[in-house]
Specification:
Blueprint: H1 3-22, E1 26-33, E2 36-38, E3 41-45, E4 49-54, E5 60-63, E6 73-76, E7 88-92, E8 97-103, E9 112-117
Parallel strand pairs: 1-4, 3-9
Antiparallel strand pairs: 1-2, 4-7, 5-6, 5-8, 8-9
Bound molecules: copper (II) ion.
Copper (II) ion is lined by residues 35, 60, 103, 105-106, 109.
């Protein structure tokens, strides 16, 4: 584990503590470090959501086809940009289904597959 990864992970644990207080339903996290998504596969219940966190200094723009929009994207600003003193976090919710995230400007990056299973019963209110 190199120094940058180590540093990123310690920052991440701080973020986890902060987010768990705000978003009780957000149970999963995808991070981007060194232009690499981690993890590459996540399965969630449709009541839950995923935080996408960009720990890189560069911007990433994720594209993930959905039924409603085959070119759905989400923009994640680089950490350290003007106005971004903290890593950019986007919290996404999904209809049941399977989604593949890739980075539009960086097609060489790995991808993330998200499998969303229909929730049994009502979702708890936040
Ligand atoms: Cu990218």
């Amino acid at each position: 584990m190199n120094l940058k990864t180590n540093f990123s992970l310690s920052i991440l644990s701080v973020i986890f503590v902060g987010l768990s207080a705000i978003e009780a339903l957000a149970t999963e996290t995808v991070v981007i470090v060194n232009s690499t998504f981690s993890p590459e596969y996540i399965e969630i219940d449709s009541c839950n959501s995923i935080d996408f966190i960009n720990l890189d200094p560069v911007d990433h723009r994720l594209i993930y086809p959905t039924e409603k929009n085959p070119r759905q994207t989400v923009y994640l600003l680089g950490w350290g940009m003007i106005g971004m003193p903290n890593p950019h976090v986007e919290n996404l919710i999904f209809d049941p289904g399977t989604y593949v995230f890739k980075c539009l400007p960086h097609p060489w990056m790995n991808s993330v597959k998200v499998h969303v299973v229909e929730s049994m019963g009502n979702c708890p209110t936040p």
